[in-house]
Amino acid sequence: MPFYSYAFVLALASAAFFYKAGEQEMDSGILFGGLSVVISALVIFVFQGGVFMELLAQVALFFGIALFRMWREP
């Protein structure tokens, strides 16, 4: 899958979104942004997923972070 695909652009936008969300929640957004980049790399390069699979993975990451934060900080 080439770097100029829609899935790659979605991966960059998602990483920026999660980075900014991490900065709002904590002091640094590197953890959230890094998780997004790792999940995007897995979906695009390992599983050969497209835009829809990338979108589902990012939504799952969003809910996973939300559930973890709800469990950790009641």
Taking pLDDT < 50 over at least 5 consecutive residues as the criterion, the unreliable ranges are none
- Helical residues, percent: over 70%
Helix and strand element order: HHH
Tally the helices. 3
How far apart are the termini?
42 Å
DSSP strand (E) fraction? under 5%
Query: What's the shape?
Result: globular
Number of domains: 1
Biggest β-sheet, characterized?
A: none
The counted number of beta strands is: 0
Class by SSE composition: mainly alpha
Rounded mean pLDDT is: 89
Rg to the nearest angstrom?
A: 13 Å
State the gist of this model.
This protein has 74 residues and is mainly alpha-helical. Helix content is 80%, strand content 0%.
Any descriptors?
mainly alpha; globular
